[in-house]
Design a protein that fits this description.
Oligomer: single chain
Radius of gyration: 27 Å
Order of helices and strands: EEEEEEHHHHEEEEHHEEHH
Distance between the termini: 76 Å
CATH class: Alpha Beta
Shape: globular
Number of domains: 1
Strand content: 15-25%
CATH architecture: 4-Layer Sandwich
Mean pLDDT: 90
Number of strands: 12
Structural class: alpha+beta
Helix content: 40-55%
């Protein structure tokens, strides 16, 4: 996940957090020793959720090309590459297994049985690459957050909301940031804690790992938050949770809840008895 914030003076920054959980082919999940974040010079980062192999391959294609110069360019390039890779994989998984490619499939519609054409076309339309991407960075136009989702070809810009998340822990992380009432005007250090806390809250979701990488992205500069600060953040997070429990616990215990006597609800009528009464009434009328 990532969040925009204020830095020194009028400059802006982005705080980004990621776990190290690796998912492969929806079959295996494990904590890896290598960060999932990829640096895209001069001042942007990308990370993915979902199939780690596909996410890494997609990101590397864009970053290694060296043709993107702003975070907006990076997001657009990721989106284009996403759509292209989805087409490649859909062709390999669906069409080539039937001895076809894109040109042959669309060129032979008339010769193929229509139910088969419809089945294949639906499979192609629903093909999911199984990857989400988040790009964060700072350029001449300011700090930005983008996400790319299946089927690619378009980007979502989250600057107006000021934070974004991807993966199975998205709802938990977003709800946490909403609870903090975070905006891009908030202080950098405060944002670092909020992003860390939101990532920790997202760990209850399946597929979210416990290890945390935290980066601060500024114009022309990307800094990783070190182990010592991460340890401090962990202690602050524990203290934060404990203080909430203490404060709420004392107030909850003072709630003036009175039990008022009330008449018990009438027993429900038996359906069998109702049928018998209706039958008896019908006989009487006859």
């Amino acid at each position: 996940m990532g969040a925009l914030c204020a830095d020194s003076g009028d400059s802006k920054a982005v705080v980004v957090a990621s776990d190290r959980m690796v998912t492969w082919a929806n079959l295996i999940e494990f904590e890896h020793g290598v960060p999932k974040l990829t640096v895209a010079p001069p001042s942007a980062v990308v990370f993915g959720a979902g199939d780690a192999l596909i996410a890494n391959m997609l990101t590397e294609r864009v970053v290694r090309a060296g043709t993107v110069h702003t975070v907006t360019d990076l997001a657009n390039a990721l989106s284009t590459q996403y759509a292209q890779m989805r087409q490649e994989r859909a062709e390999a998984d669906i069409l080539m297994a039937r001895g076809l490619n894109w040109a042959a499939f669309y060129g032979q519609h008339a010769q193929l049985q229509q139910p088969i054409v419809m089945m294949i076309d639906q499979a192609l339309a629903q093909y999911n690459l199984g990857v989400e991407l988040l790009a964060a960075g700072v350029d001449d136009s300011g700090a930005h957050l983008f996400t790319v989702h299946n089927p690619g070809g378009k980007v979502n810009r989250h600057d107006v909301i000021n934070f974004a998340a991807i993966g199975s822990g998205t709802l938990h992380a977003l709800q946490s940031m909403i609870g903090f009432e975070h905006t891009a005007k908030d202080d950098l250090k405060e944002t670092v804690f909020r992003v860390y806390a939101s990532k920790r809250r997202a760990e209850v979701a399946p597929g979210v790992g416990k290890d945390t990488d935290l980066l601060i992205v500024r114009a022309g500069q990307i800094d990783a938050v070190g182990d010592a600060v991460l340890k401090e953040l962990e202690e602050l997070y524990k203290e934060f949770l404990a203080s909430i429990a203490r404060n709420l616990g004392s107030k909850i215990s003072k709630l003036d809840i009175k039990e008022e006597a009330s008449e018990p609800a009438p027993a429900p009528k038996s359906a069998t008895g109702a049928r018998r009464r209706r039958t008896g009434a019908a006989r009487a009328e006859s």
